User: Which sequence fits this backbone?
């Protein structure tokens, strides 16, 4: 039996690019259906993440004109990861597989064909992996490579050069539903679910229209979420570093006492200030990292809903 595919597309203030990319998504559903790879019940599933422009109006208009388009609108902006999760969870009972993709047209939509082929060959998870980063600036390319390496060193298992372009089977989605954390980092959560997986490579292109909705501030926030949500190694590093500093301090105390007893001590204002500033900085940094973990625990214990749906295209 042919699988039913839902292409899940999170959208936030995408009125400029949506009229360009929406026909591409619909066309991909049409071509895969014509090729006999997916069911004619397959859909493009847009998630409006509390946009302030005409994004939701465009989605509703598309749904009225084409029954292959469905959409939901969140009650407010919850961020990319929450919007993506909302789309996956709302789609899981109506399809056999989902492919999540951004709305900006940067991810090669033709890679979906290879993803579906891998699913038909027996894979439950198919990661879309960038073949290169030629379209990135030197800073973004270098920082991304450092970030992936840092995540793996700290014990967070992620796929190198993979963002959120992936295929998931319905049974993976059902298991993913059991992950209740509020601080979402789906790239790490998917690897924890397991099941047979593979990857397909593609070349990422510049954004087709509009501006990026992921500035440096949001990228750094996602990076911190990824590290602190899947690894306690930063806490252990603090402990190890504290132990080393304590040993050095003990040696320094012994040396200063011995020097004083020998009558060779000389008052050193600069060295004293340097030591105090160094230890003060280490303490504040350590408290900041510990506070990040405590803050996440605080948010998790509240168990607030990760998204709230205010409207669907089925309301028409």
Assistant:
């Amino acid at each position: 039996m042919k699988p039913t595919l839902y292409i899940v597309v999170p959208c936030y203030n995408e009125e400029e690019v949506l009229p360009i990319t929406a026909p591409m998504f619909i066309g991909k559903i049409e071509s895969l259906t014509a090729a006999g790879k997916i069911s004619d019940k397959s859909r493009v599933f847009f998630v409006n993440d509390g946009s302030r422009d005409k994004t939701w109006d465009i989605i509703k208009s598309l749904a009225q004109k084409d029954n292959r388009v469905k959409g939901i609108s969140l009650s407010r902006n919850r961020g990319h990861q929450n919007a993506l999760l909302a789309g996956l969870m709302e789609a899981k009972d109506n399809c056999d597989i989902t492919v999540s993709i951004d709305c900006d047209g940067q991810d090669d939509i033709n890679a979906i064909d290879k993803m579906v082929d891998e699913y038909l060959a027996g894979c439950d998870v198919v990661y879309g992996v960038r073949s290169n980063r030629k379209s990135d600036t030197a800073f973004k390319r270098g920082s991304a490579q450092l970030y992936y390496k840092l995540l793996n060193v700290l014990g967070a298992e992620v796929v190198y050069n993979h963002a959120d372009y992936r295929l998931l089977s319905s049974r993976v989605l059902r298991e993913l539903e059991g992950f209740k954390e509020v601080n979402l980092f789906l790239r790490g959560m998917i690897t924890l679910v397991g099941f047979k997986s593979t990857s397909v490579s593609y070349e990422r292109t510049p954004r087709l229209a509009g501006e990026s909705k992921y500035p440096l501030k949001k990228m750094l926030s996602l990076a911190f979420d990824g590290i602190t949500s899947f690894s306690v190694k930063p806490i252990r590093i603090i402990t190890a570093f504290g132990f080393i500093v304590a040993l050095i301090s003990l040696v320094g105390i012994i040396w200063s006492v011995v020097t004083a007893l020998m009558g060779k001590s000389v008052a050193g204002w600069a060295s004293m200030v340097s030591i105090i500033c160094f230890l003060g900085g280490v303490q504040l940094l350590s408290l900041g990292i510990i506070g990040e973990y405590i803050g996440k625990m605080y948010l998790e214990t509240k168990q607030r809903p990760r998204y709230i749906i205010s409207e669907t295209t089925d309301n028409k």
